[in-house]
Structure formats: structure tokens, C-alpha cells
């Protein structure tokens, strides 16, 4: 609303999990109307953005609007269950409502460029990702920020992840790690950082270990915003439902591993 990067579109209504959240969004986003009940927006909006902090609340919030045909973007993580994700997306497809969800780090022009670099590099063996997460987060543990390490891998590589494990540091769970094994045997190690906010990815090649860095200048608005609003305007979903479900299935396996301490199968 302030930068007016998408002519013809404005955020007109906001609902908050608390009055404080709603007021802050209204002021910072220049959003004119706070609603006390999300259903007050029904019949008044052309698109919906769902972004509660706890991803387990996303699908119930979105369901009535999707059933009503309102194009919907659901912030990361989409939900906490691959089965629930599939059921919801099957419903959206049946009623013909476009829906998408993704990590803003994964769905970016920078990631597009890194994918091109990987095509140039060729065969890659080990992958090591550093990023912020917290397996004890009140907003869903590994689901909350772990999505920013998991989803870029789905954009970089066409292969599917088949098993996952979290290696807990019992002294300080913030410094835990996780392992993902792809169908072709490639392994990714996720190192949860606690000192600094940010994400880095390294890959092992025949030339040695290489950090993956985008060669393109960051632009605003980035691809995540452009594709979201394009979907609102055209109905074209920028990401397959299968990719959304698979990303949740990986996080689901990691969450189970936090509890079991074992390798867990990625179900979807």
C-alpha cells in the first residue's frame, strides 16, 4: 500500500491474532480496515493472504475463503501435515480456486540463478545448509523456520527426499543439526545456527566445496511477491501442489525425528 508496487491491488482489510498485531499491521502496512472476525472480509476481497505465526492454523483459516473461490496465498509453513495438505489442495483443485505457498528464500530470483549455476556445475554430492531454526519454537518447532532450509533444496534439485533425521544437541537444541537423504543417495546436512540470522548453502563438487551465491542483484519486488500477485490476477499457480506437499512431508519427518531420535521416512 505504501510503495504501490502492484497498481490495481491494495491490502484493504487485516485481521490479527491479537489486537496489538492487527494495529501494528494496520499502521506499518497502511491498511485501512481492521476486522474483528476474518469472515467480515467475505464478499469484499478479491484475494487472501494467510500468515498466522503458527502454521497449524493456516488451513482452517483459509478453508472458507478457498471454498468461496478466493485465490489464496498461505505463508510458510503451509501446514503441519502432508495428509492435511493433500486433502486441502485436492479440495482447492476441485472447486477451482488457485492456492500457493512457499518460502520467500526459496521462491526468489536468487534461487533461480543458483539453479542455473547447479546446472552448469553438474554432478553434486554433499550439500550443507546453514540457517536459522529452533526445534523448540512455540510456533511449531522445526516447521517454523526450518522451511527456509528445506524448500530451497526442492527448487535446486529435481530429486525427492526419502528419509530425514534430526541430531539433537541435548545441551543446546538451538545448535542441533538435521540430515536429509535424496532418492539418488545425495545427502544434505542442515546446520541450525544461533548466532546470526541468515542462510548459506555449500555443495561438494569435483572441484571441491563451493558456496552457492546468487549472481543477480536483489530487486524489489522479488519473485515471491510478483508470482503471488500474478496468481491473484490470472489464477496461474506458480508452484505445483505436489511440491508444496513434499516440502511439508520433509518437515513432518524432521518433526517426528525430533521426538523419536531416529531416521524417519518422508511420506509424500
Task: Characterize the structure shown.
The protein is an alpha/beta fold. 35% of the residues lie in helices and 19% in strands. It has 7 helices and 12 strands. Strands 11-10-6-9-8-7-12 form a 7-stranded mixed β-sheet, with helices on one face. Strands 3-4-5 form a 3-stranded parallel β-sheet, with helices on both faces. Strand 8 (177-182) and strand 9 form a beta hairpin. Helix 2 runs parallel beside helix 3, helix 3 (82-95) runs antiparallel to helix 7 and helix 5 (142-156) crosses helix 7. The longest helix has 20 residues, at 241-260. The chain is globular. The mean pLDDT is 95.
Q: Helices and strands in order, then pairings?
A:
Elements lengths: L12 E2 L4 H11 L3 E2 L13 E3 L7 H10 L4 E3 L7 H14 L3 E2 L8 H13 L5 E6 L9 H15 L4 E7 L9 E6 L4 E7 L6 E6 L2 E4 L11 H12 L6 H20 L3 E2 L3
Parallel strand pairs: 1-2, 3-4, 4-5, 6-9
Antiparallel strand pairs: 6-10, 7-8, 7-12, 8-9, 10-11
Helix pairs in contact: 2-3, 3-7, 5-7
Amino acid at each position: 500500500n505504501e510503495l504501490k508496487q502492484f497498481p490495481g491491488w491494495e491490502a484493504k482489510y487485516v485481521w490479527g491474532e491479537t489486537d496489538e498485531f492487527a494495529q501494528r499491521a494496520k499502521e506499518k502496512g497502511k491498511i485501512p480496515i481492521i476486522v474483528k472476525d476474518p469472515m467480515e472480509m467475505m464478499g469484499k476481497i478479491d484475494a487472501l493472504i494467510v500468515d498466522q505465526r503458527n502454521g497449524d492454523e493456516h488451513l482452517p483459516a483459509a478453508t472458507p475463503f478457498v471454498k468461496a473461490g478466493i485465490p489464496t496465498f498461505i505463508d510458510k509453513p503451509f501446514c503441519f501435515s502432508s495428509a492435511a495438505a493433500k486433502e486441502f489442495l485436492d479440495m482447492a483443485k476441485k472447486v477451482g480456486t488457485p492456492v500457493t505457498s512457499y518460502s520467500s528464500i526459496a521462491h526468489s530470483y536468487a534461487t533461480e540463478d543458483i539453479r542455473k549455476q547447479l546446472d552448469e556445475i553438474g554432478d553434486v554430492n554433499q550439500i550443507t545448509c546453514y540457517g536459522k531454526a529452533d526445534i523448540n519454537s512455540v510456533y511449531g518447532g522445526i516447521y517454523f523456520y526450518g522451511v527456509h532450509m528445506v524448500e530451497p533444496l526442492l527448487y535446486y534439485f529435481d530429486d525427492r527426499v526419502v528419509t530425514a533425521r534430526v541430531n539433537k544437541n541435548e545441551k543446546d537444541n538451538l545448535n542441533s543439526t538435521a540430515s536429509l537423504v535424496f532418492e539418488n543417495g545425495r545427502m544434505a546436512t542442515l546446520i541450525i545456527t544461533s548466532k546470526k540470522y541468515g542462510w548459506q548453502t555449500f555443495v561438494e563438487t569435483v572441484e571441491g566445496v563451493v558456496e552457492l551465491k546468487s549472481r543477480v542483484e536483489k530487486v524489489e519486488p522479488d519473485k515471491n511477491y510478483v508470482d503471488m500477485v500474478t496468481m491473484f490476477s490470472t489464477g496461474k499457480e506458480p508452484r505445483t501442489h505436489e511440491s508444496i506437499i513434499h516440502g511439508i512431508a520433509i518437515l513432518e519427518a524432521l518433526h517426528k525425528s525430533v521426538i523419536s531420535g531416529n531416521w524417519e521416512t518422508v511420506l509424500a
